[in-house]
Fold each of these.
Amino acid sequence: MTTRVAVVGGGLIGLAVAWRCVQRGLDVTVYDAEEDKASTVAAGMLAPASEIQSGEQALQDLLRSGARRWPDFAAELARATGIELGYRDEGTLIVALTDDDLREVRRLCGLYERAGQPVHALTAQQLREREPLLTPRVRGGAYAPQDRQVDPRRVLAALRQAIGDRIVPRKITDLSIVDADVTVVAAGIGTRSLTGLPVRPVKGQTVRLTAPARPIRHVIRGYARSRTVYLVPRHDGELVIGATEEERGVDTSVTAGGVLDLLRPAADLLPEIVEYPVREIRAGLRPGTPDNAPILGALKAGVIVAAGHYRNGVLLTPVTADLVADLVATGVPPEQLKPFAPDREALWT
């Protein structure tokens, strides 16, 4: 008899898990509350070294695995749906405005090197040769050629198309009412109320501008007067600037302070953006955990969790989908999942 799988949550993680389960011949239903999702606010940078902290080796390995899987995942999903995903591979320019900022860039470059990701130091002149619109005041920086980007909104649309009529528009508030052999909880910040696991909302605001035709080619991760900002160009002329990180509970209001914290350093690095029309300003809620790592694995018999991806949900979508679908299909947790189990000590200390 075919295993009946319920996926609670229709964001990138939930839909990708569902898609991989369908490909394994499982009977899948996705319950999607049709609420705002973190992925619709995310910029979609695929940079496995830039968000890591010292001592997070297991997470670093998972991030690298996610990055390695993205090219094939993107190509397969685009073929299956005919939707162009905005997958780009020009790499990231890491840019410093002051000497203090340059020291932070060098620290980040050390993280890239320890993660086995190539990174090349660049002078201010070399940076401006690659991106002439950068301010002449830049001090220096680096180039990370293996960083990538994708448009999460396009990926979400493609996954919804790939899943088709398996999506049920219903909010699940109690797992006991779900009729399935296996339930996968991929409900983002809603995971806590469903499971009791320590997943908290972390607010992030982003600004989207309409730029002239491709004003910059690379993702720019900038350090300007001790503030960090990233600028992500899209093929359609959109420029995404993000993102704040705020412990504000479930508040998703856009604030003047949050916008200033993004636009000030962005304009310091790329002065002409002050002339770009504003397309959108939004805030979303990342699902954070006490140790900044996702929660992946069996919570109890018949219930699997795939949540708490924090700042790395887009990057970890392909590897999470593959590993969780393997667990659903076989009942045996892949080795790579074990450091992220729901009962790990770091979640509860």
Amino acid sequence: MTFFDLLGAEALAAKTGWILGGLALSLPLLRRFAHDKPRLKALGLFTFLHLVALLVAAAAGALDSPLDDVFRVPCWVFGAVAFVWALSTVLFSVVLPRVRLPVPQIVQDVSVALLSVVAAVSVAGRAGVNLSGLIATSAVLTAVLGFSLQDTIANIAGGLGLQTDNSIEVGDWIRVGTQPSDINGRVVRIRWRYTAIETRNWETVLVPNRVLMNSSVMVLGRRGEQPQQWRRWVHFHVDFRFQPGDVIEVVQAAVRGAQLGPVAKEPPPNCVLMDLADSYGRYAVRYWLTDLAADDPTDSEVRQVIFSALERAGMKPALPAHAVFVTHESEDRQAIKTQKQLARRKKMLDAMPLFSPLSEDEKHELARSMRYAPFARGEVITRQGAEAHWLYLLEEGTASVRVSDGVTEKEAAQLKDGSFFGEMSLLTGDPRTATVVAVTDVECFRLDKASFQRVVERRPEVTKAIASIVAARRAEQQAIREGLSVEAAQARQKHEENDLLDRMMRFFGLS
């Protein structure tokens, strides 16, 4: 027989047509859905070996060489194994993922390996290969392999156990060991021998599976059917000059009101008194982190909120009891610092048209009564509907003005350096008409009703001038928004001025 006659006969006996036909039909599916490149490479390798053995067997038969029988069995074995790999790849990489029945990787590998061995042994046995010698020596071979590969077998068994009982899954954040300095990161792969963990330091740690099985492993952020979130502790100290209840109230309100993305709303953050030291109280803010990769950055943002809240409330963080100050704070030095701070505040008042009717002495008086009020990024400075009788002057930073209709909240404007807001709450006591949130770290000064009232009580006529300025500003905005004529705008301004003046007089008790 010719080479091609023998090739056809060998291909028919080895079911090569079925193998190549199935591979041709499944290849588009595999290229479209399967992303397991090692398995695709293995499938291609076995198919290639099958075709090579087929060609060699046909050539040997054409030459009447005894190699015909030698290569016929490997041809059939490689064909059977290639068929098993093709079916398993379609099943595990295409069909089951599409019906949302994922199978752990190690279970897939074990199943494919066992089926491949069964197929190879079955085909070889049907081809007349005597396997009795192999079976006879399997006990000795198993003992030798078991002794020399006991660590490897332990790792394989550990990996199989981890994936079958779902105790640790890909995507989990875990800590191996009991100390904070132990391995801490996200599981990205579970393989036969090891589990790969990516740390926050941009490292990938390969932990043998037997280590995970024999060690204490903490799965971070997992609790029953609850969403993934991890409780964090941020510690700070405040001395005994301030009541613990006041410290807790100030800090807790600030952290809960801040709009920090990775901080969960439920359960809400809380502040607790942890201990009483020699000269200060040890406090901690506890919050729940939703993005476990952003632990340190979120802790930093929470610390900034705590610092700003304590600064606004006049509560300084505690200093060590043994601190020694060597700078001699003379009266001249203190006076210079005070004058610089007053000049800084008065400069802001001079730039505001609202206070242009006031005299220089009156502005100096208001500057002395203004309080420094910093806000960290994400903190809510004022909230829509709240009653707070003070005005904010924004010295540095950016804030977002947001208005809510009860369902949705949208940004109406952004405030920059030199802006002011809350004037109606200062002048009339009206509730806040918008929510103002710090976009960046913001430095503000706050002017309250009591300080401004001392000025208007001595000189009530300034209320009329201020009412005229505010009314003109509001009437101008309404005229642009509603398209009013000049006469209508003037009438609107007069009405606004009279109404505002009346409300100011009642609010300050001057009527």
Amino acid sequence: MNHSTTEVSICVVPRERFSCAVDSLYNVISNTTGQYKLVYVDANSPPAIASQLAALCREHGFTYIRKDRYMSPNEARNIGLNSIDTTFVACIDNDLFVRPGWLEALMDCARATGA
């Protein structure tokens, strides 16, 4: 993926649970097309989950930021946003499951409304 022309980033942050974080990331990858960057902020997930998340991020060229303490979603978003250089950002929680076309729909809305 050529990141130099990418205009949107996805910032994934923890919510209240880690149990479906790996499945959620697989789902986002499977249902997101086009060029995008992804920054994953892992706030002290259990080691087995952290290693799977880190491996998925490496495999797909995503940015993986690990913090060894739990933090609120807003704090994690701020950390993730420091690593983002695109025009648009979609912030999602680590337990979100999306449908095909989700990011394109958000981008279309952002462009149409001047967001």
Amino acid sequence: MNNKLAYITGATSGIGRAIALRLAKNGYNTVITGRRKQLLDSLCEEIKDKYQTDVLVSNYDVRDRKSVEHAIENLPPTWKNPDVLVNNAGLAAGLNSIQEGNPDDWEQMIDTNIKGLLYVSRMIAPRMIQQGYGHIINIGSIAGKEVYPNGNVYCATKHAVDALTKAMRIDMLPYGIKVTQIAPGAAETEFSLVRFKGDKQTADNVYKGFTPLSGEDVADVVEYLLKLPEHVCLNDIVMTCLAQANTTMTHKKLN
């Protein structure tokens, strides 16, 4: 296996799926991970058909530390040392004030957005250090820079990703490993559908009246990052659609 290797979490849909396809298009072999095996298998076949690169499906939940450790420890020899790690797995659950929040939603977000990123990074980073190169890309959120009404715990988890990315950049500095955060604003993926627990009408209303980001837009940025010279590292990238200024101000054209 001579191509570069990328390890992508949360590859079943949205941003993670778009990144996996884009990196395969650019000649990367990919390890694609996620909870929904059927979607991973479908993506695997699409990549092989379109780009003829190698793909390995790894089906687990990043919230389960033992599953993360088992999956990465048992990668086949030629798949053990990624050049790129994309920590994309993440979600929002619910949209409530803190006094009305559901603790089960809080735990799901904390376990996925923070602990899942930590579990995967803890397994991959030492391998990058050993090989002497690599690039860790954390998919954060504009919600990690600001807060918005009823976003409390989700915003807190993405603020944690922001802090962890800065800390990881310091930790990886002596080893020549790049660390970048991409913090997208409103992006039309499964994000709102998951947040509103399958309520498609409510989820669709979030994006009415403007053109949000897409997974492909974020994949464009990842592609650019990986083509930069070896001595250049973009540490932190906040990206929004044209209609969005921050977490609370979006210009919508509604009839």
